[in-house]
Amino acid sequence: MRGTVRANQLEASRAVSYRQLMTKRDPFKYFKTSPEIIILAVMMYVRFPLSLRNVEDLLHERGIEISHESVRFWWNRFGPMFAAEIRRNRASRLRAYSNWRWHLDEVFVKINGETRFLWRAVDHEGEVLESNVTKHRDRKAALKFLRKTMKRYGLPHVIVTDLLRSYGAAMKVIGNADRQETGRWKNNRAENSHLPFRRRERAMLRFRRTRTLQKFVSVHASVHNHFNQERHLYSRANFKLNRTAALAEWRQLGAP
C-alpha cells in the first residue's frame, strides 16, 4: 500500500513538473527588442567594467540603436533572473566540490558617504559562493553571513579568515571554531576576489542605495563565476573550448 501511494505521488510530481515545463512563460514576450540583443547588453554591462553609456556606444558601433536607459532597465529586469539560473545550473557541482576550504573577507563600500561592509565567501578555486552587505561587521553580521552561506552550501572542512574577531565569535556560536585558520597570506584568494568588483564600482561611480549594491554584487558574482575560466591553468586550445561553451550557455539563458 505504501509503495503504491509513493508511486502515485511520484507520478503526480512528474506531471506537475511537465506542466510547468510546458507552460514556462517567455520572459522576452512583450519586448520589441530581440532577446539576443538584450542578453548581449546585460552581459556587457555586468561582466565588463563599462558604464550604461559605454554599452550604448558599443552597441551603436554594431548597428544597434538603443538608449542607455534601456540597458538600465534590462539589467534590472533580467540580471537577477540570469544570475538565479546560473546558480541553479551550478548548484549541484558547487555543493559537491566547494566544501573543502572557504575563504572569507569583507571590504568597505561607501554609499552616499556612509560606510557599508561587503562580505564575501570564496572557495578554494576562486568561485564566489556568497556576497552580503551589512551596516556593521560585528558578531551578529558575521553569524548571519555564515549561516546564510552554510544553508546553501553545507559545512566546510576549513574556513580561512583574517584576524577580525567577529569571525571567531560567530564560529563559537555555530560550533566550528576549530575549523578556522588565519595567516598572513592564507586569505589571498578572498582578497583577490574583490578586484573585479572594485573595477565595476569605479565604472559605476559607486552606489546610491544598499539595496542596489546587494542586488548588483549577487548578479555580478554569478556572471563572474560563469565566465571565470582560470585561463592560467589551461592550454590555449582548452581555454578556447571552455570560453565558447560558457558563451553558448549564456546565450541560452531565459529560453522558454
What would your notes on this structure say?
The protein is an alpha/beta fold and 256 residues long. The protein has two domains: 97 residues, no CATH class; 111 residues, Nucleotidyltransferase, domain 5 (2-Layer Sandwich), CATH 3.30.420. It is built from ten helices and five strands. It has a five-stranded mixed beta sheet with strand order 3-2-1-4-5, with helices on both faces. Strand 4, helix 6 and strand 5 form a beta-alpha-beta unit. Helix 2 packs across helix 4, helix 4 crosses helix 9 and helix 5 packs across helix 6. The protein is globular. It starts with a helix and ends in a 5-residue tail after the last helix.
Secondary structure elements and pairings:
Layout: H1 2-22, H2 35-47, H3 52-61, H4 68-97, E1 101-111, E2 114-123, E3 128-134, H5 139-153, E4 158-161, H6 165-174, E5 180-182, H7 188-193, H8 195-203, H9 210-227, H10 236-251
Parallel strand pairs: 1-4, 4-5
Antiparallel strand pairs: 1-2, 2-3
Number of domains: 2
Structural class of the secondary elements? Answer: alpha/beta
Number of strands: 5
- In whole angstroms, how far apart are the ends? 39 Å
CATH architecture assignment of the largest domain: 2-Layer Sandwich
Which topology of the largest domain does CATH recognise?
A: Nucleotidyltransferase, domain 5
Level-1 CATH class name of the largest domain:
Alpha Beta
Shape, please?
Answer: globular
Largest sheet: 5 strands, mixed
**What is the N-to-C succession of helices and strands?**
HHHHEEEHEHEHHHH
Number of helices: 10
- Uncertain spans: 1-23
What fraction of the residues are assigned to beta strands by DSSP? 5-15%
Strand order of the largest sheet: 3-2-1-4-5
Radius of gyration: 21 Å
Helix content: 55-70%
CATH homologous superfamily identity of the largest domain:
Ribonuclease H-like superfamily/Ribonuclease H
Q: What's the average pLDDT? A: 85
